[in-house]
Amino acid sequence: MLTKVHTGLEPVAGTWWHPAHKAEKVWVGIAFAWCLVLFAMMPLWHWKGGQNPSGIRTRVDPRAFYARTTEFVKQYKVGDDKGFPIVQPPAGADVYLTAMTYQWYPILQLQRNVTYRLHLSALDFNHGFSLYPLNVNFQIIPGYDYALEVTPTAAGDFRIICNEFCGIGHHTMVGRVIVLDESGNKVSDRNDVTLRVGGTP
Ligand SMILES: [Cu+2]
Q: How far is the CA of 86 from the centre of ligand 1 (A)?
């Protein structure tokens, strides 16, 4: 039978209200210090790790962005693949890539160890820029021009895969980036597959 009702004002039998043991305080201190280390890692990774690139995001009308893309295609088109333009911009150029259901427009042909300013935007819905087989992922949002300073460090034929579900044909949304070597030849670097993304364009 219950003889005593605890109101919460009186401590129940136990030891929890005794002052924390010294070892416990040390562990709380260690955990807190580790929290601070992890907190500092976030900005540190941004500057040192090159993991979160500091791109410039500006607002842009999707149609205006598409107009810039078509202008860019007209200016630097060097060929086509099944009617799809292959565009080779010069070093340091502004490169435009538009994501739309269900394609990446146009095909980019870049050069190894050359720096470009890559502008990414979407015409209709949110899309995801994922450069296969590299670990590069960006959200592509209509109405925003995301500019990144990009230096391909490996030559080869890469695929852009949409990693944001955008509709029934999402799985068919595959783009292409060709990276030529310094002398403009098609080669494939199998060992050094990286893409340096970072810095402020
Ligand atoms: Cu998609």
A: 21
Q: What is the DSSP letter of 8?
A: S
Total-model pTM = 0.72
Residue 96's pLDDT band, with cuts at 50, 70 and 90, is very high
Condensed to tens digits (0 to 9), the pLDDT of residues 3-28 reads 666 677 776 676 667 788 899 999 99
CA of 161 from ligand 1 middle (Å) equals 8
CA 133-142-98 angle, to 5 degrees, is: 50
- Rounded to the nearest angstrom, the distance between the alpha carbon of 128 and the centre of ligand 1 is 6
CA of residue 103 to ligand 1 center, whole Å: 9
d(CA 57, ligand 1 centre) in Å: 21
Rounded Cα gap, residues 72 and 95, in angstroms: 7
Is 2.60.40.420 the CATH classification of the domain at 56-197?
yes
Residues 53, 14: Cα–Cα separation, whole Å: 53
Q: Where are the domains of the chain?
A: 15-52, 56-197
Q: Is the pLDDT of residue 192 over 70?
A: no
